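job 3f2a | input accepted
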Amino acid sequence: MNPELNLLQAGISAMHKQQYPQAVEALEAFCRHNTGSKPSEYFEAQRWLIKAYQRNGQVDLAIYLCRQMTDSPNAQTRSWATSNLQWLQEESGVNADNVQVPSPNVGETGTPPTPAIENFIPLTSASLDDDRADNSDVARLPVHVDPIDLLPPAEIDRLLKDGQKALKMGRFGEAIEQLERVCSGIASNHKDLAQAQMSLVKAYQGGEQPDLAIALCRQLMRSEKEYVQIWASQFLSKLAPDIGNEPVQSSQSTSPTSSWSESQSEEDAIEDDPPEQVVRAPLPTAGRAEQGCVKFLGKGVTANLGLASAVTLSLLFGMVLVLSLVVIPHDLRTNHPTLWLGLSVSITIGFNLLMFFVSPYVMDVMQQLLYSTRWTSLSEIARHSPESAKVIREVCRQKNIREPQLGIIDDNNPTAFTYGSLPNSARLVVSRGLFEYLDDDEAATVYAHELGHIVHWDFAVMTLASTLVQITYLVYVYGRQVTKWLGNSSVEKNIKQAAQNAALIAYVFYVVGEFMLLYLSRIREYHADRFAAEVTGNPNALSRALVKIAYGITEEERQHPEQSRVMLRGTRALGICDGKAAVSSGAAYRAATTPRKVGKVFLWDMFNPWAWWMELMSTHPLIGKRIRALTTYAEQLGLATEYDMAAIVKEGNQLNKSRLYRSFFGDLLLLFAPPLGFFGGLLIGLVFATAGGGWRVAICCTLVGLGLGLLLKMVVMYPDYDRAIDTDILTLMSDPYANPLRGRPVKLNGEIIGRGDSGNKVGADLVLHDATGKIMLHHSSRLGWLGNVWFGWTQAAYLIGEQVSTVGWFRRSIASRVDLISLDCPRIPLHVSSYHRFWTVVYGLGSIGLGLAIPLIFR
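job 3f2a | predicted structure (859 res):
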């Protein structure tokens, strides 16, 4: 990076850390020595410097510099300076006309600490590195605001919505006017800036102003957000193919990116480079078939969808039937068994039919209440993604079904899901983020995937099955409540007994139904993936889409954790991928420079037996397994594959299987050591009790067994942390031997970006973000849950946004985490200690001590 630009970055960094004197010094030095630099950088420095002066108590300097900027020949600069000058005067009570040239506080020449405004260079195409652009046009590009928002939040929201609406309706002139106002009056760290700028690029393109679109695209390629860089680079490749494939320059990068076609030695040479030293460029992409509507061999799909659906429905229907048989009064069962059976069957059929047709409307109401889903037309989808609209038309024509009701959720988390009762009344909903993170062909494969659910009818099975499982849970809850309300009369006793039986059976069915539902959900995803690959002839695009969606989920959760958590939880079972399992793939895509590095994360998905165990509780197959299936389809089409899964499988086959499986079966026993110790002790205790030892011996053995199980598990879970090594999140996620039990001592450095449980103001768990991804830090106070609440209430909030160093035990699972040992924040300063091992020892020894004391106390 240019040494002078380091001054600008240092000043901005000091502002974020509220180190205002240091910020003033760095920004003044930049402005003194960079009067001929790019206008965007120089103007950026002046805006930050005004804010630094104001926050540092040097209001006169802030007003003086702002007044200088009102004389700029650039209209945008004048507008910004005029508005901010008025704000500064109102806030400080100082009239700009009464401010004299301040005494210099730096330098020796007696000149003001910043250069005269006459040295400010108007924004031109040259400053944007675009020789194509006309100077007068590119000078109109909006410049966003840092120190003070020109527009209030409500006005920003209104203008952005109006601008995007005009863009969707094809009123490009109106869209440009509204979006330019947003981009000119919004802070650089505002959550909607990137959205507004990307929409403005599309408006410029639609309004036949390609030079402005190209110039703004090139600005966005220097964004700090990787997904914006990727989007801008890919959009630029469509606007100007001859320059659109240039590498994206990351703000943290210093070395060139290797390409997909580099030799193995070159790729290995950068394998060990620190992530922050690698340029983040869009990964190379593999091709597609010349036409869709192909057929693949059976390889890639693991089970029969029809059989899985039939078994699931049969089991769920059986659940309702058994519940009906139990709930019907005892007298009817005894005196009229035929009527009893017929009535139960009728109730089952009627109830299921009712749920089949009513459940979509119930979900419509929930969608509107929770996510403000709006229904739209195919023409709007075509404006977002032309190929998606084409896929919808073609599939509906070929399969002779009506176009589904199309919905959009105004949320940047990329997701898509389908629900309904019949193919001709299905609802297909996507989020706005799907179009932001995915290219046109990738979004089209997602739509094809969701249409596959409709064609296969599994969306209706899932809608009905989900409702039935929830009903069994409601019966369980209600049945337990009824037993508390009723008295002891003979009639009430009969009803109470029936309610207890119904609650017990309902709970068993609920647990079994959940597992069946999860199984069906995973199977149907494989078949929908295959359908999408067949329809589009583009399995590689769906592979990219799955990884990009995972990346988008992690990126949005990093920026807007509370909002994202609500969205992902509500659509987890129906969405295209499981948000909990997205962390590893998203981290890989964010940091990796080659597809091979992304693929290495999939080793754990495909070969670690813990992945299979954890997947049992997942609504979707692990992304690595889905991409492996999609790769077989690409190979059948004779295409180069998006991720070299053959190399990944080869590497996986060379893993130490003995280490993987011996560790797995042994660790599985250790994972359940406390309950095994409890029941083992209980069994031994009962043997002694029947031999004359009494109930005291039984309780003693049970508690001692539980305590021994806890201590045994503790030894494995929390090894000596003196062996902790410095690493990063991507490296941890790429370890195929990692597991959820045996903690790996690690040291991680990064920024705390939020709480583990978003929205919980007293939550003690935190989320750490480094250059390669994010992970949850699990905290345990020495004072137990009360200490956790105290830490979450009094200290956790101060750590958010701070750079920290941590030591802990890493655990890999569907949702990986680090059990904290210590956390240090040098800026505050603050040292946090965590005591997971301490509490396990306390519980284990306490259980053993109590067990041994009982025979002595109760003699």
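job 3f2a | The first helix runs from residue 3 to 16.
job 3f2a | closed
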